[in-house]
Here is the input.
Amino acid sequence: MDSVFSLPSAPGPRVPSLSRDTSSPYRTPPWARYGLALLATGLAFAFQWFLWRWLAPSPSFLFLSAVVLSAWWGGYGPGALATALSLVLTRFFFLEAFPAASSVAHHTVTSALFTGVATLMTLVAARVRTTLHEAQIARASAQANGHVLDITLRSIGDAVLTTDSHGLVRFINPVASYFTGWRESDAIGQPLERVLRLVDPSTRQPLVPAIPERHEQRPVQLGLQALLLSKNGAELPIEHTAAPVSGSEGRRIGSVIVFRDISARFREDHERSQLLAREHDAHAEAEAQRERLETLFMQAPVAICLTRGADHVVELVNPLGQTLVGERLSLGRSVLETLSGLDPNLLHLLDEVYRKGTPFVGHEVPLRADFSGTGQDEVKYFDLTWQPWRGVDGEILGTMGLCAEVTEQVLARREVEALATDLQKALQIRDDFLSVASHELKTPLTSLQLQLQLLWRSLPEHDSDGSPHPARKRIEATRRPAERLHQLVNNLLDVSRIRAGRLALEHETVDFAALLQDVVARAEADAAGAGCKLVLQAGSPVIGRWDRLRLEQVVTNLLSNAIKYGASHPVELTVIQDGPFARLTVRDYGIGIAPENQARIFHRFERAVSERHYGGFGLGLWICKQIVESLGGDIRVESQPGLGATFIVALPLEPPPSSRSDAEPDSGSNSASHSTV
Here is the structure.
């Protein structure tokens, strides 16, 4: 359909003049024509004179030929001259030769008869000559007109085809030849349907060119548009018209078909259709977008209000905005007129946004107004966003506000803050109580432990019969709960120290492997009582600078947990040096820890199991984490329920700068430094 037809320009043939020759058929000068009449009459007289004896009965016979010749070549004047001369010569030279016929009556009749015949022959000869001349001029004019018509049809920009009465092509101009792909010599004599192949542009169905009937004298429009299939395969949209060609008797002797290329119009129509379709789609999309925006505006979860002008005339407000102010905002009226009791600060805010064009964003802004319409002012809190409403040219038309009431959230947060304050006070009271209680308990517990040790040492190891002294068993049974209680009191004291930032660290050179062996040796009795076998891997020394007592506390807590939760299963302890770090691993094969509890167990007073089955305050791992992090290390756990737990502690061999004491060590010691956490 995009085939482009263009004809090469060429100089047109020379067009002959169409002016009709209206001159006389007698082109010779008058003297020649009249001279010819005299000559013809003279010759007729000579021949008549020499042939008189044979032409005696017809004295004017040869003169008639002179009259006809003079009239043919000279016209009416020379013919009349020849007639007059012939009449005179006949009268005086030939009629006088007949004495019997020399009467006046005879001469008069003969002269009159000759004059009439000669005049008639003059008129006929001149008329015939004029008629032949006019016919010649008409033929020349017809030939010129036909040539001009041929040139015109070949030169016009439209394509032209003519057919005879049988529908065979008799003429095709260069434009039609170019459009159809047929050369003129090949197209002549071909059926019109073969040369002019038309199809419907939309249905692609063939169209037969309708030739008008003989009685149809008006042009017949075959259709505004059709698709011409060229012989070379190209397709061209055309517009065509057919008209009959009639002969002199009114009969149709053929047809003429004129068609032109409408590719440009076709493209314009197609582009116009596409433009209209796009415009329609754009309009539909804009309408749908408007409906969506209106739906969003009306169903927005926040109050939206649009005001116009410096008086803040309400232009639009959604239902939530109406509900917010008790459905008292009226379109077309100013905010001040509608809400007479509105907070002046809000009106000032609207003026500032409209005048300066600077948006305002406020959170939990308190506004006092008669929101319920009862005449009583009340304070409510809002998250406000007011910004200028600008036109397409950037000019400020008004303001647009988004408002969400957060009164309930503000009151709830304040209540939570009050509860948090009360909770903080309660926690502080609890911590103070724990600190005081632990200090008060530590002194008698220490005294009790000393008395038990003295009593243990004062008793003999065996009775007189060699059996173990029974009092020693009772003292041992009393010493273990006292030590456990002492550890709990120490944990409570550590909690108080850590929260107060008074957990003191004394860094000294420590062999982590030897320390681990000492802790394991002291825990052998407890492990045996729980049915646990302690497996220690600490062959090579691991030397670092740590707080020995706090490091023992970490190892003891981890080992106690492993024995507690991994009863009747072995417990594996390993310490190695891993670059600049010492790495401690304590693994049990007990109940394990669920993944969701692995981070929680390092919090204060948190436990992964019920205290009904396992004792303790839930402080041991929290204290371990605080001590390890104070030493610049890290502690983590890897566990699956039912498969035991593995606690991994990584400590730097040298304390980080943040845990070193800013004070110089005592003059009597070069091996220890002090810091406070």
Observations:
- The first strand starts at residue 159 and ends at 164.
- The longest helix spans residues 104-155.
